[in-house]
């Protein structure tokens, strides 16, 4: 379970996020939705130990990320692409990640097959398309067979078949009792994939709950989203 409580972060005297609180439960896909600059990335970076909060806490299984004994076996994440060096092959990149985290080498071939990159395993990452880079990032996230997935815009650059694959993967992951936190600006995908929603605007959570509850009284998730964000900004 992910528990975020009173999370606050300042950048240059301005609050990037302020008193952000929500929970992500096992067995559910939780969508994290907000306009650009709303605070989604700041929240995820703190959750994954890439930045420090000025106040509040972000816990995974009751612990901050930095205190996890085997982080890659606990949390798989995708932020800002694959993170692979352009001169490395897909297989070499995943092999290094597996070795540095004590993950069996066999997992490299398994995840390359799982994300549809088995035929590109020997190609250098610098020649990958945006969609292939996203698939490689997903392979790294899945490498440790983690109980938690934290994904930022995972369908970015994917073709329709890839988007359908991601959707199915996340639904199966949650159905297996694991925890999924999905940040995206694609509301059609959120409506198809998420069980629960957290909506953030101007650094504050403005709605949280089951998808049906957040969208109640509106014709679509898009309509609900704009009504919520307009109300939060005073428009």
From TrEMBL:
InterPro entries: AAA+_ATPase, ABC_transporter-like_ATP-bd, P-loop_NTPase. Residues 2-227 form the ABC transporter domain. Keywords: ATP-binding, Nucleotide-binding, Transport. GO terms for molecular function: ATP binding; ATP hydrolysis activity. Coiled coil: none annotated. PROSITE patterns: ABC_TRANSPORTER_2. Pfam families: ABC_tran. Belongs to the ABC transporter superfamily. This is ABC transporter.
């Amino acid at each position: 379970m992910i528990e975020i409580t009173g999370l606050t972060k300042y950048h240059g005297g301005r609050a990037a996020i302020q008193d952000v609180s929500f929970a992500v439960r096992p067995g559910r896909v939780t969508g994290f939705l907000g306009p650009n600059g709303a605070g989604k990335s700041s929240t995820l970076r703190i959750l994954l130990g890439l930045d420090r909060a000025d106040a509040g806490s972000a816990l995974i299984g009751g612990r901050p990320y930095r205190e996890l004994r085997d982080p890659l076996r606990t949390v798989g994440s995708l932020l800002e692409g694959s993170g692979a060096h352009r001169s490395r092959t897909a297989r070499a990149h995943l092999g290094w990640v597996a070795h540095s985290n004590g993950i069996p080498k066999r997992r490299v071939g398994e995840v390359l097959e799982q994300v549809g990159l088995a035929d590109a395993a020997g190609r250098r990452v610098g020649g990958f398309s945006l969609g292939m880079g996203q698939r490689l990032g997903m392979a790294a996230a899945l490498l440790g067979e983690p109980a938690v997935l934290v994904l930022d815009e995972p369908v970015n650059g994917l073709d329709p078949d890839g988007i359908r694959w991601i959707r199915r993967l996340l639904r199966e992951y949650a159905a297996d009792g694991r925890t999924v936190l999905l940040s995206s600006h694609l509301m059609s995908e959120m409506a198809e994939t998420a069980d629960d929603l957290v909506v953030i605007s101007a650094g504050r959570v403005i709605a949280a709950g089951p998808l049906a509850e957040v969208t109640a009284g509106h014709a679509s998730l898009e309509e609900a989203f704009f009504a919520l964000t307009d109300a939060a900004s005073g428009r």
